[in-house]
Prior knowledge:
Blueprint: E1 10-11, H1 22-28, H2 44-64, E2 71-74, H3 77-96, E3 127-131, H4 136-147, E4 152-156, H5 166-172, E5 177-181, H6 195-205, E6 212-216, H7 228-231, E7 235-239, E8 250-254, H8 280-316, E9 321-323, E10 334-339, H9 344-353, E11 356-357, H10 373-377, H11 382-385, E12 388-392, H12 399-417
Parallel strand pairs: 1-11, 3-4, 3-5, 5-6, 6-7
Antiparallel strand pairs: 2-8, 7-8, 9-10, 10-12
Amino acid sequence: MSAEYGISPIYMDYAATTPMPEEVVAAMLPYFGERFANPSSTHPMGSAIHWETIQAREKLAFLLNVQPRELVLTSGGTEADNQAIWTGLRYAKTCFSCGKEKPQTSLQMAPQEQPQRPMRMAPQKPHFISTEMEHEAILAPLHFLEQEGLADVTLLHPGPSGIITPSALDAAIRPETVLVSIMAVNNEVGTIQPIAELAQIVRARSGKHRILFHTDAVQAAGHLPIDMQEWDVDMLSLSAHKFGGPKGVGLLVSRHPVVPSPFLLGGAQERGLRAGTTNVAGLIGMTKALEISRLHRQEEELRLTALGNALADGLSSLPGVLLTVAREDRLPSIVHITVAGLSQDVLLAQLGRRGISASAGSACQAGANVESHVLRALDVAPERRRSALRFSLGAQTTQEEVTYVVEALRACCARRDA
């Protein structure tokens, strides 16, 4: 309950994390109790759990339209994104080693051999392409590679629409381009990228070596019908807690023959691609959450579209409030606005006193006192960047809550204008 207004909490930060359905919690509970054995153990209890993890992987693979061997369990989207970038760097070595191109089969390298091989880059630097509005889990490792002189990086500027056009991507590709990484749905403003169209450009421009295409689909899962074959991407990142699963578990999906390069060493788990004891409960919970999400996706998206449009209409009717991106370009369940004359801190405090949990942007940047790089990429004016709010809707959002939020922000604007 809100201490000041005596109302029940209203959660509108589903883009940061989602609650777990009862079915997901129930599926996980046995693995904290009687099914506690390590699946890497060869005794009967361990073997039984191992078999259950195989079944979970098969179900995940079916839902994503890939093979079970193409899944690598991670601790979440950040690790999956980092591993994708690392894979691109390792792949560059096979493309440019000694100045000679190697056949595409060199994509498939024995995982157990990779950690022992020294990182000797060719004189020709590999080239990576991404966007200015990616998650920091992509931008930070790319910045590191560039800073260390290991790669050249091009970050595409989306401009006010937030959309990367196929022509812009086509113009950025060079002969030495080895990896393109473009997120499917932006986590702050909700823009949806035309991933399948962008992948076509990459495929058409692949020359002597295949250009790898990775997409961060963390915010897309649970909302878009992800199909690795239809999108035609090589690698894809997911995080379970964004679609009703537990925190601390995710996936890097990597289509054959691309084998991810490991950077967590010390064990043979995940076929040598990611050392560490398998998070069995997390795997089971993620599988159940994705299954539920897929089962109800269409009806849920219709409901969230109606609620999101109602929220966008109500908020944009208030004085000084602007939608950051056009509604036709974004996920309907993410409504991002700027409020003239009020700072984020003041807005969040006033909404919080009314029991509303919203955000100023990415949860990963919360408390860092850093201006949003996404809003800079969208050419949002500096004075408006400091008054940005993100409302993200989900399974428990109601029309009554949407109406209440609009009226709460109306009260905030009235205090500003008084």
